[in-house]
Design brief:
Layout (H helix, E strand, L loop, with lengths): L8 E3 L4 E6 L4 E5 L10 E4 L21 E5 L17 E2 H10 L2 H8 L2 E8 L5 E6 L4 H12 L5 H10 L1 H7 E9 L5 H15 L10
Antiparallel strand pairs: 1-4, 2-3, 4-5, 6-9, 7-8, 7-9
Helix pairs in contact: 1-3, 2-3
Length: 208
């Protein structure tokens, strides 16, 4: 997989046996003998000019990859660097949520706020709010689990396109941070403000 902190470097995500080829996906079985290297082996490979897309036939390029480093432990994502610097892909956030990275969890659990989901394939946006118990962490964990977070327009999109669409296209950011003591009606007012500013009702995924 593309290792986003460093250009032209790739992180080993596992080796798999293809059990069945379906129309739109493969049914796979992870090969346990490679488990010790998952998330640890970094290889370099420069995309050729003209290469596009997110998926490639590895067989065509495997001899061009060079192992550069074996990390001492499995990579679990970048350290939390402030709310204003969050601009995470679905896959990046998925790893953070899955591993319950302590710095990220502590920061995102402790706040209410307004967040943004952007669809990289078409530029559409969804503005959401987090309030109550576990803050933005809980809301984003719901998106990672379902692909849609039970938001009407996103439910329709993911029901049609599959969760893979979210993994390939959704990016997450925080628009506004509020203390946990902020009244919920104030959070909703700010959410409506951002929907108006970003036109996410008329040209995005917000339906209300």
């Amino acid at each position: 997989m593309d290792f986003y902190p460093r250009s032209n470097q790739w992180l080993f995500g596992g080796a798999f046996e293809v059990l069945e080829r379906l129309n739109d996906r493969y049914r796979l079985k992870a090969l346990s003998e490679f488990d010790q290297y998952v998330g640890r082996v970094l290889a370099s490979f420069h995309r050729y000019q003209g290469m596009r897309g997110r998926a490639y036939y590895l067989e065509s390029y495997i001899d061009k990859f060079k192992v550069r480093e074996i990390l001492p432990k499995r990579y679990s994502g970048e350290a939390f660097d402030g709310y204003e610097n969050i601009e995470s892909s679905f896959s990046e956030l998925e790893a953070i949520i899955r591993d319950e990275k302590p710095d990220w969890k502590a920061a995102l659990e402790s706040i209410k706020g307004i967040y943004l989901i952007s669809d990289a394939s078409n530029g559409k946006k969804y503005v959401g709010s987090a309030y109550g118990g576990a803050g933005i962490w809980s809301r984003w964990a719901s998106y990672i689990g379902t692909g849609h977070g039970w938001n009407d327009e996103l439910v329709r999109l993911i029901s049609r396109e599959g969760k893979r669409y979210a993994r390939e296209n959704f990016r997450f950011a925080v628009l506004e941070v509020m203390a946990n003591s902020t009244p919920d009606d104030v959070v909703h007012q700010r959410e409506s403000h951002w929907k108006r500013v970003l036109l996410s009702r008329a040209h995005g995924y917000n339906s209300n």
